[in-house]
Amino acid sequence: MTTWSQFTEEAPTISALFLRRHQATGNLCMLGTVRADGSPRISPIEPMVFENMLVLVGMPKTRKFDDLARDPRFCLHTATVDTNVSDGDAKLFGRVSDLHDAAVHARFAQMLFDESGMDIRGEKFDHFYVAELTGASTVEVEGDHLNITVWKPGAGEWVVRKE
């Protein structure tokens, strides 16, 4: 599986579009997880790139994190309200691992405090999920067709044009 920093090197087009759409929505994305019964769950999340890791953290004891604890597979989709997808959209696929490193947690909490004033410094994290990517894609509208850029680890990016 691929770390965030490896992904940005192998998939510069997709990672740039993901970051642009991520920032345009105030960091809001939609997270797809697998429920205990095997059905899908879609939840809002505000993932962050921190120290070259894509981090999926949030309010503790939520169902989405229960899902990830049981089955680490996920899909992350940039949020959009534009039905024409004029600024494109991106999807990332992968698995999370739970990083148990108190020093990283402390630096993350300090960064949150510095950037937003949210003070969780000194609190224990239930989970600190770091994404390991297994695939990604974007959709961009260009005139009368779609360009779908696809990435798989080690294979680089390629474009599928849909008329």
TrEMBL record:
The keyword Lipid biosynthesis does not apply. Residues 27-108 form the Pyridoxamine 5'-phosphate oxidase N-terminal domain. It comes from the Bacteria. The keyword Ubl conjugation does not apply. Keywords: Oxidoreductase. PANTHER family: HEME OXYGENASE HI_0854-RELATED (PTHR35176). This is Pyridoxamine 5'-phosphate oxidase family protein.
